[in-house]
Write a structure and sequence with these properties.
The protein is built from 10 helices and 10 strands. Helices cover about 45% and strands about 15% of the residues. The chain starts with 10 loop residues before the first strand and ends in a 9-residue tail after the last helix. The chain is of the alpha/beta class and about 260 residues long. The radius of gyration is 19 Å and the shape is globular. Helix 1 packs parallel to helix 2, helix 2 runs parallel beside helix 3 and helix 3 packs parallel to helix 4. The longest helix is centred in the first third of the chain and has 16 residues. The protein has a 6-stranded mixed β-sheet, with helices on both faces. A 4-stranded mixed β-sheet has the order 4-6-8-9. A hairpin with a 2-residue loop joins strand 1 and strand 2.
Length: about 260
Amino acid sequence: MSLTDSVPPELSVRQHEGVLWLTICREERRNAISPGVLQGLSEALARAGRDRSVRAIVLTGAGDKAFCAGADLQSGQSFQFDYSEPTQGLANLLRLARATHVPKIARVNGACMAGGMGLLALCDMAVAAPHARFGLPEVKVGLFPAQVLSVLQDLVGRRMLTELCITGEPIDARQALACGLLNHVDEDLDAGVQALLDRVLDKSPAAVRRGLYLMAQIDSMSFEQSMAFTESQIALFALTEDAAEGQQAFREKRQPRWTGR
């Protein structure tokens, strides 16, 4: 089945030259999260994780006003859950993203709020337009950004994260860059995203895939656990076809021809 088969209308899925482009298409709702968006993103990430032709994923929103405004409060259904299920939609998407070892880049084209901050944080890297704004406004409607804390707490310092959570006030793109939410802010957003992609796509797919797996695994380990795990992992990196090819290409002073294996 193609990555673009059975896609909900709220999400555009396009694959081009090894990059899977995922665009939330709810511009009239500031690209707010809906059940269809969650379903589409989950299915796309799951398939991309199994498809070696996908070298990177770019997540963005339609238009230039909003990346994602979070839950769709206008629907009145956003916080109605099936409490017989131990896990829920957004949390399951964040779990799946963590287990998908394909580089994920957020193209932040506008407002990134509430659950949208979770989508930003599930990505490995992020590039934003200068007019983008970032915030956790849940306290303004009597809620709290509970689920997204799990993915934001390692990106943002505790004091800044606390301020975002308990004031609900937004910050601009330059502040988001300074506090670690972003890799780059670029006047030409598409050029900035492409520049980052170019620096990823010419590298070993096997090393990137195994490397993202390694980074996720050691995230909650103690120092000694991390050292024991990584010293065994480096031997596995060295056994890949890409490692042999990369070292041979270095010796021969030529560009490597990656197989991704």
